Amino acid sequence: MVGATGYSGFELTRLLNAHPRAKKPLLLKRAEDTASADLAECYPHLSGNGGFPLEPFSWTRVKNAGVDVLFLCTPHEVSRAWVPEALELGLRVVDLSGAWRLKQAAHRGVYGFEDSSCQRTAEINDAAVYGSPELHAAKMPGAALVANPGCYATSIILALTPWLRDGLMDRSAAIVCDAKSGVSGAGKQPTPRTHFVEVSENLSAYTVFGHRHTGEILEQLDLGGDQLQFTPHLLPIPRGILSTIYARVAPGVSAAELEESLRRFYAGRKFVRIFAAGALPEIKYSLHTNFCDLGFCLEPNGQRVVLISCLDNLIKGAAGQAVQNMNLMFGWSESEGLA
Amino acid sequence: MVGATGYSGFELTRLLNAHPRAKKPLLLKRAEDTASADLAECYPHLSGNGGFPLEPFSWTRVKNAGVDVLFLCTPHEVSRAWVPEALELGLRVVDLSGAWRLKQAAHRGVYGFEDSSCQRTAEINDAAVYGSPELHAAKMPGAALVANPGCYATSIILALTPWLRDGLMDRSAAIVCDAKSGVSGAGKQPTPRTHFVEVSENLSAYTVFGHRHTGEILEQLDLGGDQLQFTPHLLPIPRGILSTIYARVAPGVSAAELEESLRRFYAGRKFVRIFAAGALPEIKYSLHTNFCDLGFCLEPNGQRVVLISCLDNLIKGAAGQAVQNMNLMFGWSESEGLA
Amino acid sequence: MVGATGYSGFELTRLLNAHPRAKKPLLLKRAEDTASADLAECYPHLSGNGGFPLEPFSWTRVKNAGVDVLFLCTPHEVSRAWVPEALELGLRVVDLSGAWRLKQAAHRGVYGFEDSSCQRTAEINDAAVYGSPELHAAKMPGAALVANPGCYATSIILALTPWLRDGLMDRSAAIVCDAKSGVSGAGKQPTPRTHFVEVSENLSAYTVFGHRHTGEILEQLDLGGDQLQFTPHLLPIPRGILSTIYARVAPGVSAAELEESLRRFYAGRKFVRIFAAGALPEIKYSLHTNFCDLGFCLEPNGQRVVLISCLDNLIKGAAGQAVQNMNLMFGWSESEGLA
Amino acid sequence: MVGATGYSGFELTRLLNAHPRAKKPLLLKRAEDTASADLAECYPHLSGNGGFPLEPFSWTRVKNAGVDVLFLCTPHEVSRAWVPEALELGLRVVDLSGAWRLKQAAHRGVYGFEDSSCQRTAEINDAAVYGSPELHAAKMPGAALVANPGCYATSIILALTPWLRDGLMDRSAAIVCDAKSGVSGAGKQPTPRTHFVEVSENLSAYTVFGHRHTGEILEQLDLGGDQLQFTPHLLPIPRGILSTIYARVAPGVSAAELEESLRRFYAGRKFVRIFAAGALPEIKYSLHTNFCDLGFCLEPNGQRVVLISCLDNLIKGAAGQAVQNMNLMFGWSESEGLA
């Protein structure tokens, strides 16, 4: 794994270390990373579980180590640059950045990757599997590159897919997704925005239009930009996401049908929990787990529905989903190491 | 004042105590209130400023004290029962409960006051002034009963009034108000819902449809129930409200026109601060003040607008607005004791 | 288990449910407990892992269920009353209350149990094993009753035992233990003390002299009341304890000796982590784990030492330590189900 | 004022702006300060109160402005360098840094100022008044340079001075001061230490021996280094300090005598509030005020006493105390602009 010192990388290290089928992960750091020689120096949480040496990254080291799957917890520019070389070496890759999630050039604009004039890059981009195991499990065993989804995107895509596929929604009305996230989603780099005094006792909206995760959401839900509004907020808590989704259902659709649609779609899937109609998830229920929790209220005698989706941005929104994808890539139970 | 031991009552006591034109308030407690003999025993914050004796409430005591204005920080049932008697005695009243805010019987249903078959009650209800000084300042000098607005309602009504009145909004699209409040809005009574361990590290939505403040918002904005969706959330902070409002503007409306509309409407009003187009308020800016902060983003090349409204639920959302109303009732500057 | 609805009981349920050698626990509730029929209704965190039915407690139910060990997460009065009957039935008991922790009658005064004139009670009290696995592991296999330690007591006893036993401390100077705990230590009952608005943005000391855990600490460390001062504080966080311990070491004792003493005493023990001299644990490192973390600074050229001890009050301070004790009682590795 | 962009400088700006006798402060920024042209851009809290232009600092600008008192919210190196020049110009200075607080060269070592071989510097250092208005009010009217105390130091010095002066303490026993502060005490610069995710849900001790404020405390209390142990902790709250002080009283001293000593010493002083014996202050009581709150518990039948001292580190611990000093320097009531 490259990038263990960030919050997602740290969680991924924890999960892989405890995974019954994975070997202890090889932790590699980029030249820019001045972190110490052992991850337990940054994260004393890890001590008492043996060493977690951080080695300088090189392709030679990766080859010699006999790595089966390369996890990239790297900035999207780095992931975009490194993945072709990794695939060339025959490695399978799970990339946690946004570099390979988007099929439409227009959506890639926010990352500066709208142009894929290089044919190899275009092929890789086309072949990359969007790493939502609940949507694309069948593609994982054959995937060379899995583009692990964004945290906000996961919460919204899992919430809306069943009703949209089952035709239960009024598609003429725009869907509003008001999302709220804990601060770890903003990364480990200290900035004025992540200073304790600035965040605590506070709430703020940001990137009101055009947040990077919007493209993923639209592509996976097959919606146009006018059909969905997504605005994130920064919560004064370290982790967790709650998305409040406002929509209209098709005429005559009942709460029972809505609940049944969710239950049917996620039947047999371990990591999406459906609450009974009228019961709502809260952030704390899914913290430190790989669950995404879904619940909704349908307006009495009305068409309006409010759908709540909660998850832990570092687990189901990042490292846990990455492990879930790895499990499917290697033909294991998707819940190995995640229960 | 009756009800100083609650959070709003405590803030009101603080404000009145420091008010340059008000006498030290007479604090009265209902028989049910087992609080101690001095408010500074519940709130040691107050000590060092002289005594704050809590006396048992009686109409005789009120009469003898020569009270000019009676503040009721009481449950709505109590306010509904007491106000007629207070008016009978010639007192002017500022009621901080929801008892007298609603003109339409249907909206009063959530409080159980839909029926005003008693003619005196109906007259009082009709004559009550909705205590939004930015909307109804002209009525305050003559008001016998001011119904101080709800905290959420204040944040949403102040945000939307100018654009609706100026015809800048697309009224065919429903407005979504996703509001978030600190815990003091839930009152001082300890409940499982206000337990620290339940609230901290968490976020939850509640009363998804039909929150009590919905009626006030619809009446003051002159909207039908289908035109506005209001859903509140409980934030892990002690105080402050941020409302995120999703709407569509009328075709061709520019960000400059939207900003100008807000500035024009609130010209000369001290306690609404307008942020430049594209700049957004955060909860912390207005904490411990009587300001309501408004800011918005208009979608580039689009009709969608996101409007953010922030205030301190205990000050502008309750006690501060009550003092502002008092100032206007007595012909003083609205900012006396609030700067 | 009796008492799963409290915070410790909930954590114990989680741990036992995931324990590789334990059966799914039988959850029993006392008549006073009005909780719902399934623990997942109180704690939706548990859903997705099968049912957690809460059955009314009766000795008949306990007998018929073939229970191997009875966990009591009950008030100390209840534990004091029930344990004799449980032992009579041949059950082994781990009691998480303070009912059976204290050998000296004077120390039991805070619980109202100073008098053990009943001979059977006195025998049980004498035979009870204080459930600190790092101190009394050898007694666990034969123990009928294990009195699981208090959370504060665990943090202080584990910190001070090695140096006291090794004679490294200046016993003429009183030891000061300034301890700070998250709010879950105050229990799940909503009170003014646990209201979010009262706790957040705050810190307070309480029970400055004579906190209930003082007796345990003195007995296990074999100190007199004058030799140790223990004062707890309430932190605005949901869980975790940090104890700052001020002491003097014997003349000439070096930091290396102090560190060596800790390492030697806890050699082979999984759940006490020793930090290098001069490095200090923080609360977050041990949250959600069964670790107790110890670190210290020795004054340069001096005799003063500050020792920091951190743990999660619900895991190592309660449920995790209970499972660790169970493991030792049944001859299993002490880390089964806790890694 | 120089340095308005830091947390103390911002609070000082707020206080001076609302001060009935002070003109609106002239805000100057050092060349290193890249802050914007108006303080309200960094702190939108200030908007609605006119402009707060930030001008580049120069001595010419200071002279021309007719400044009566220069507040320095600057790093201690800067304050050490600038004060001689300011005094040369005939300005009176209140310095909020640690540059001029310490009389003993050994104590100044932590700032790198142990050597005052320059005679002018030595004279200034000797003449500087330690800015504790409760201790040195009489010196303020004539003071050219007031060295505003450290926040921790204020909380401990105010707590211990009366008993030490009245001979009520057992001086043979070392005093332990376990202090806890909110994060604003660590400054506005984003660092790994102030990152929200690192601080929240956490508590940590730091600078266990030799914190910079130790020298001030020892000098003002006239104690030797062995007689007092001071260790600070970082609380997961934005502001506020609580110091828990462990000491022994002289034989036979009663709680009434202790309380009386505090009340007598602070008689006529507005900003120290004494709690009745056995009642303890909490951080929240003094937040956003200039009060220092003192309370204590004496051990029943014992000599041990625990004394709690609380204040707001940005107000009484910095900006408020600076205003209080200014009031005394100019012969005004010490509470002007602070009530």
Q: Could you characterize the architecture of this molecule?
A:
With 339 residues, chain A is an alpha/beta fold. Chain A folds into two domains: 7-149 and 317-329, Rossmann fold (3-Layer(aba) Sandwich); 151-313, Dihydrodipicolinate Reductase, domain 2 (2-Layer Sandwich), CATH 3.30.360. In chain A, 32% of the residues lie in helices and 18% in strands. Chain A contains 13 helices and 13 strands. The first copy, chain A, has helices at 7-17, 39-42, 59-64, 76-88, 105-108, 119-127, 133-136, 151-165, 196-199, 213-221, 255-265, 283-286, 315-329, and strands spanning 27-29, 54-56, 69-72, 92-95, 129-130, 145-147, 175-181, 204-205, 228-234, 241-248, 272-274, 292-298, 304-311. A seven-stranded mixed beta sheet of chain A has the order 8-9-7-10-13-12-11. In chain A, strands 3-4-6-5 form a four-stranded parallel beta sheet, with helices on both faces. The first copy, chain A, has a two-stranded parallel ribbon with strand order 1-2. In chain A, helix 12 links the parallel strand 11 (272-274) and strand 12. The radius of gyration of chain A is 20 Å and the shape is globular. Chain A binds chain C through residues 18, 44-45, 47-48, 201, 270, 273, 275, 281-282, 284-286, 288-289, 291, 293, 339, and chain C through 18, 44-45, 47-48, 201, 270-271, 273, 275, 281-282, 284-286, 288-289, 291, 293, 339.
